[in-house]
Design goal:
single chain, mainly beta, 6-stranded antiparallel beta sheet, 1 helix, globular
Amino acid sequence: MRPILKYKLVARETFIQIYFNEETGTTAFTLVSHGKRIFGRDYDAMRGWHKHPPENPSKHITHRQTCLSEFLDEALRIIFL
């Protein structure tokens, strides 16, 4: 079995979830509010790196590789706007 990381940073009804699965190569950085994704940056074998923009979080837009710190900076800007 290979490492899987799942972590949540929680504040009231909003949280950041960080997910990594070494076996599948999947990475997901997600900002969730009131039970719905409102922003995300993901990597999977089918789509590669892509983003879920805050104005339409169900959309998949091709995007360059994103590191965790870059995602956190953008997520915090969204939370505190």
